[in-house]
Amino acid sequence: MSARSFTALWFAVIAVVQRLPAQQDLTSYTSAVAAIGRRQSVDDSIAAPGARSILLAGGAPTARAIVLLHGLTDSPRQFEAFAYLLHADGNNVYVPRLPQHGLRGKSVGVLSALTAEQLKGVADSVVNEARGLGDSVVVVGLSMGGTIAAWIAQQREVSRVVLIAPAIEPGRIPSLLDRPLIGLADRLPSMARRSQPDSARPDREPGFNLRAIAEILELGRSVLGEAGREASLTRDIVVLVNASDRTVKQSATEALARNWLRHRAAVSVFELPDSLRLPHNIIDPTSGRVGGNAVLDLLRELAYGAQPSGLVRSVPLR
To answer: Which domains does the chain have, with CATH numbers?
Structure first.
């Protein structure tokens, strides 16, 4: 082989090698979209209108893929406006329907079938799917979704996790009574109370289900314990708490953040002040002194790892 032929062959090999990562990324992207498509097909057969898993993707991996995890009794529609806002910024965005939620023709009683193991399982699967959607993965979760996001932060390595009012311990209950009450709720016959349904939101199961709440809190407590013993696999964690929130216990969330910080994770905690009078569900609030757009702008900053420009104060971790 002549020197010229060898040189031409060498440059051809280099060109092929340089194209491989992009081709591999596209293959991963195609596999991820197909897996999410199968999830959506299941949703189409069992989910209520508006409760289908959401995927906003532009046909190729993006620098950042963002996963949004909804709260108890809610559905992907809870994050719909925020998902479109993030997608307009150039991100692929994925909002999965979580187990036992948004089922067609079902009431809040169906949530008695929810288990902590199901929540761990869906956490694993959505992280695996999201990896094909972008070069980095950011996970944002509210309430129950925040508890799942906390488990992801502890057990999986992603670029950033944002916890919004995660359900680690219930509000208004002393911590000494927390674990016995969770255990009792998990063993008694299921207690559920259905609230008046909203005809405009058939994707929601209004009311509460004590057994489902116990399973979520059990997952939260397990993450709190694991974070005290070992470092989280995700090293960039942002926590948002709400001083007006009486549904979950802020002190437990801050204890979780301190555990992560003790193991040298980069942890930031921000608080929405009580003066805003925001409810536990800050994504689509029906009350409070700020509009939903201001909250969405804040969450956008937190998802991107930017210093928040307003609404919140930084909470020092001692």
So the answer is: 3-314 (3.40.50.1820)
Phi/psi zone of residue 287: left (φ > 0), alpha (ψ -120 to 50 degrees), beta? beta
Alpha-helix runs per DSSP H in the chain = 3-46, 80-88, 116-131, 144-155, 175-187, 210-229, 250-262, 292-303
In the structure encoding, which two tokens stand for residue 118, read together? 């199901």
CA dist 72 → 145, 186, 214, 273, 274 (Å): 8, 16, 12, 23, 23
Tokens of 185: 């709720």
**pLDDT confidence of residue 191:** 55
Rounded to whole angstroms, how far apart are CA atoms 250 and 175? 12
pLDDT in tens, 204-254: 887 879 999 999 999 999 999 999 999 999 999 999 999 999 999 999 999
Token pair in block for residue 275: 């003066």
* 270 three-class SS: strand
